[in-house]
Model the fold of this input.
Amino acid sequence: MTTAPSSPRPLRADARRNRRRVLDAARVAFEEGGNDVQMEDIAKRAGVGVGTIYRHFPTKQALIDELTAEWMADGAAKAADALKEPDPWDGVVLFVRRSAEIMVRNRGLREVFGDVGQLFEDDARVQNHDLQDKVTALLDRAHAAGVLRPDVGVNEFRALMCGLAMAVTNTPPGAHQLYADVILKGLKT
Amino acid sequence: MTTAPSSPRPLRADARRNRRRVLDAARVAFEEGGNDVQMEDIAKRAGVGVGTIYRHFPTKQALIDELTAEWMADGAAKAADALKEPDPWDGVVLFVRRSAEIMVRNRGLREVFGDVGQLFEDDARVQNHDLQDKVTALLDRAHAAGVLRPDVGVNEFRALMCGLAMAVTNTPPGAHQLYADVILKGLKT
DNA sequence: GACGATACGGAAGCTCGATTCCGTTTGTCA
DNA sequence: TGACAAACGGAATCGAGCTTCCGTATCGTC
Done:
């Protein structure tokens, strides 16, 4: 996933620094502008030339994938938090609410989710088993406690989260918790 | 909205025929492939040259807008049906269910909805007051009967429908009614 | 402090799709 | 049926972005 975790000699100091700058700039840019930020914008924000981006990431998509992996890891962490909640239903509520909050601020993530089909069918591109597993655990626990609609599995849940992302997209600030509430109410047994 | 409803001389017979063919081909194409169908595909399906499309519609966007207007009109008709339902809540249910069904089959419409901000803020481009008004009536009636969450107005409802569209997007066939149910349950007082 | 390997910047190239243009064809009207 | 306007087809043009390339600058090592 990350470039060369193994053998070849370590990056030169300036290269390491630039790689980080590119990633940071790209993160901000994609969170704000989604897929239609341009490579040149990112380069400008990072204070490097486009060529430098390509030295570190073979394509725009590879760069996005790297960020996506980060976002998924964050999500997995959030799910892990939610699992710490003693009450199974509270766990679900917490996770959905937080997800809504995150998605309001991250257009790139919303778009990635819109692509779900592609993203999740083919596990080659972005590793997300961790997120997948944690969410499954969260839902299983709620099912076992009989507080979550039994016909909602991970896939259905994911689709609903995509929906939430969409609803949240062009929405007056603050309203996003309303959508989270509607979905939560709909999910409860 | 439609090209020149008024003064200039009527279209020649072949032109009229071609215009219809283009529109029909475009409808099918956009329903299936959304915004990324290409003008040339449409031309091919319609059995005309690209030039002919441009004789009738100044840009690709104009063509999409024309179809969008049709889709909105359909939606308004569905909302009108729903208003005929004697029970206010049944009306909402009917409308949401049917909308879900329609959206599963129409990628173009889903994408248009994804753009909601643009589409509805600026009423210059596509006329949709009719849909807007009918849905407002539907919701008002349900509010008055006390069966619909009072904090859900047209805008919130629209956002939720967008969400539904998204959820429905990469979904196993048949599952879309599940999402409609979840949202409906969440909407009910 | 000199040399080779690495990395950099950003102009040029390439691809893909929308849109334009114009020589040719077809419909309409007398 | 002939003349003219209207419409057609589709090759050529144009623009937008991603990606490549290469001359120059920097790093790390001896």
Notes: Confidence is low (pLDDT under 50) at residues 1-6 of chain B. The CA atoms of residues 21 and 46 of chain B lie 5 Å apart. The interface with chain A takes residues 114, 116-117, 149, 151-152, 155-156, 159-160, 162-172, 175, 178-179, 181-187 of chain B (CB under 8 Å).
